[in-house]
User: Fold this.
Amino acid sequence: MPRLRFAQLPTPLEEAANLSKYLGGPRILFKRDDLTASALGGNKVRKLEFILGRIVSEGYDTLIVPGGYQSNMARISAALANKLGLNVELVLGGAPEEAINNNGNLLLEHLLGANITYVNTVPRWDFGSALDDLKEKLQADGLKPYLLPLGGSSPEGMAGYVEATLELKEQCRLQSVKPDRLFVAIGSGGTYSGLLLGALNNDVGYEVTGISVSRTRDYLLEKVPENVDHGASLLDMKSFSASSRLSIYDEYIGDSYGAMTDECKEAIQLVAKTEGVFLDPVYSGKCMAGMIDLIQKGEVGRKETVIFLHTGGWPALFAYESDLIKTSAANVAKIA
Ligand SMILES: Cc1ncc(COP(=O)(O)O)c(C=O)c1O
Assistant:
């Protein structure tokens, strides 16, 4: 499969001993995919290595990227497309008033000089005909556009996380870590699906637990096995019975995708205070909030070894200033 190299790999696998001690176990490690480096890092860099590999090898000259106003995919795609000399068209959806907040990823996308079309979408991933209309217009202009699936969750995108599984397995061997569980945030589901496909094929010994930040568990229980089957056939791997291996929670979304929750705020503060690591307000913060809750409820055993995949996204923190600054550090003490 064609691949371009952008990420600095392997990303570190680090003990989060202070966090672990604060929570009274389990042993927690962070897999630092926030440090994939390109365009400020995050999980999308691994996906884009394979997606852009295909785009370049098939001669596309324009990338259409759908996403929310604070889309990390849009930031990273625009930056890597610039590097490759491709045109990039961002189609960003959400409530119109959100576009007024030009901070965070949106600021960076402006700096990258990306063409941005704003679409009033509810739910945020329903773009109506806007994407196809833009594609047709670009084709009429003589361009060869490639429409990225939302979140880059195509088999190429999944391949990035099948590869990441091999990287993690080797790190665990070298660092004598025997993980029971791997936690990851689920948005469009490609990262989780790639990790699951990687795990099913590589005898890793851990369960892949996904914390959804947008879609319902019922939707994902149907969608992820489809992704895994599709990815497995294109990547020439076995899909096994993915349905029986799903571990997915949707209780930590809050009011909606992107809406701050108290637990997310507290998780962001706690991890910054204990480990000096910045989570993001949309994905990794909610995933951490879910992981903490499952530890506190005893669903994750205190003696387990848990890896938290930090998928990046911290530039969005700057768009959430008013949500985040109100919470005092005293709230962190409520978690115990
Ligand atoms: C920071 C961050 N974490 C996690 C995810 C979720 O990845 P996926 O869409 O593959 O489920 C995203 C997707 O946008 C993201 O930007």
Observations:
- The first helix runs from residue 17 to 23.
- The chain has two domains: 13-43+153-334, 47-152.
- Residues 47-152 form a domain with the Rossmann fold fold (CATH 3.40.50.1100).
- DSSP finds eleven helices and ten strands in the chain.
